[in-house]
Amino acid sequence: MARSLLTAIIAAGLTLVVANLSFFSLIELKGLDLLFTLRGVRPPPSQIVIVAIDELSLAEIKRQWPWPRGTHATLIRQLAGAGAKVIGLDILFAEPSESQEDNALEQAIQEAGNVVLVSALGVVNDPLFHLTTRIDPLPALAKVAAVGSPIITVDADGVVRRSRLLSPGLSSFALQVVGKYLSAPERNVLSKQDFYKELLIDYRGPPRTVSTVSYYQALDYTRLLPPGIFKDKIVLVGRSLETIPEAQHLSGDTFFTPFSWVSGNATAGVEIQATLISNLLEGSFVKELSRLSHTILIVLVTLLSGLVLAVSRPMVGLLAMAAITAVLCAIAHVIFTAFTVWVPVVSGVLGIMLVYGGHLLARSLGMEQERRRTLEEANRTLEAKITERTQELTEVNQQLTNRNQQIEVAYKDLARTQEQLIHSEKMASLGLLVAGIAHELNNPISFVHNNLEFIEEYIERLTKIVLAYSNLDSLNGQKRRHGDKQKEVAKFDTIEKTLQELIASCRTGADRVKQIVLDLRTFSRTDDLGLVMADLQSGIESSLNLLSREYKDRITIHREYNSLPLVECYAGQINQVFMNLLQNAAQAIPERGQVWIKTEAFSDWVRVTVKDTGKGISAKDLERIFDPFFTTKPIGEGTGLGLSISYGIVEKHGGRITVASALGEGAEFAVELPVHMSRKNL
Question: What's the pTM value of the predicted model, to 2 decimals?
Fold first, then answer.
């Protein structure tokens, strides 16, 4: 109980402090706006009519705003003739116009004798000072009419809720109108202290709640308006624009009121003045609780909440707080509706929330203390177990360290084994090519060997001929005839032609050997130099040349080469992948068939596709096609490592290898590699 009361007292103090902060005052004012909304619209004041300068009037009166002052003079005469008791013009006539128009307006005001004009407050902004000045009507007009200023206060949220009747050297427009209407000193309307403080305006409803007619209707009231509409009434003339786009420059005299947050519409300044006049006549300004009453309310609410929480369980306490809040709001609504007294409930609700929050905090702290005692006992129990467990974990950790060392050694062995497998598969591929390469090399070497015998014989003959003609100048006719006989016997012409053919044949054989050696070097190039920028299509062609005996005369190769960038890779390993795919494609075709090789580049990747018309691969075998030691070839014809090693090489390069196949439909392998392997592996 004591703890709950102490919490309530602290909550009351905090609420009083927060309630005096400026930002919280705005929240309280929003509560006042809600009370206006809940109360609803009240009947309009019967003694006031507004003549609105509205959209219809701007359309009917075919003149550009501002209208000639003669038009306003006509309106004043019409209203006076209709029996208006007071005419209030919420239009500022501060600047002279045409003298004829100004004279007409002055004469109409003087003849009516019941006109109130409006003055305004202007602000002069200067780097050195901030000055508020009064802007009065023309002296000639002010001399024949009463003058007052619309002294309203715009709150920080842009809503007009308060007004002042008197200010130093300034009387309000509403007060001047009421003074003329009552034909008595205006200060008799309210108590003396009310004239110098800000009063809360008692709004009757949203815009156009006060009886309103259009300006153009008032100019011809006998025809367009009901009889007696202005008789003995206060008639206020001012701007009341809503929608017309052409008149937006006239709509500055509009303000938000407590009803605007529901309707979203602003209220014309002239209607706010009409509401003020009604409040003055009826003495119905919104009354506020005194600071002392407000303080007592907060203390009572918080103490009541603390007492209820002291004897309630948490869930029941929450429901009780909700009930107290609802009752407080209901009481505030009833008092405002019945007596126009504003009871600030937001601070009371804040007090209730602080009491409940403090109660939960105190309860939580108590539970926390109990929890701490329990934890201390549990900690003492756990410490012994932790010590024991720590010893066990130390032993396990030592075992794990030993195990990690063993795993590290095994990993290094596995890496070496993997490298050996890759090398073994490469050597196996090379071994399968040896027979074909030996056959390919034997033919050009035979050309060279056989041709050399003929070349030696022909060179011997040529030597004899050269010797016979070495002393040509000293030869006699008989010896010359002998030399010609030797040239004929040696068939010199035939030797010359045949020798050229033999040399050409030797050159062809040598070029063939050179190409075979070059392809073999390209395929088996070492990766000791690390990553290089390689031409993938050149590697494919080298593999095809080395495999030519495998597919020659039975397989047609279709090349669909597109422009490829140089690819960063271990060239020897990538060539091994292509050799394996091409060799598998050739071996998958039992007799005659076709193989398509396609290269293409996309984004920062390249793709190489090898498609054959072979036997194809079953769906069951496709699931294991890249598994180590899995092969569909007969025993002794394959190791089952080719595709597994190829998969590992492509994956090492940051790429991917895929296969699509079905029995009897051939197979298609696709290898995708990044152009820059080092960037992909970052």
Answer: 0.54
Q: What pLDDT, on a 0 to 100 scale, did the predictor assign at position 245? A: 42
Q: How far apart are CA 314 and CA 360, in angstroms?
A: 8
- CB environment 476-509: b (16+ within 10 A), e (fewer): eeeeeeebeeebeebebeebeeebeebeebbeeb
Question: Is there a contact between 57 and 222 (Cβ–Cβ < 8 Å)?
Answer: no
Tokens of 528: 């000791």
- Map residue 582 onto helix, strand or coil: helix
Secondary structure letter of residue 633 according to DSSP: S
Give the H or E element holding residue 239: strand 234-239
Strands (DSSP E) found in 350-509:
none
pLDDT band at 250 (very low <50, low <70, confident <90, very high): very low
What are the structure tokens assigned to 389, written together?
A: 């467990």
Domains of the chain: 42-285 (no CATH), 530-680 (3.30.565.10)
Q: Taking a C-beta distance cutoff of 8 angstroms, is the pair 88, 177 a contact?
A: yes
**Per-residue b/e over 42-79, b at no fewer than 16 CB within 10 Å?**
eebbebbbbbbbbbebbeebeeeeebbbbbbbbbbbbb
Apex CA 639: angle with CA 637 and CA 642, to 5°? 110
User: pLDDT band at 291, cuts 50/70/90?
Assistant: confident
Q: Pairing state of beta strands 667-674 and 656-661? A: antiparallel
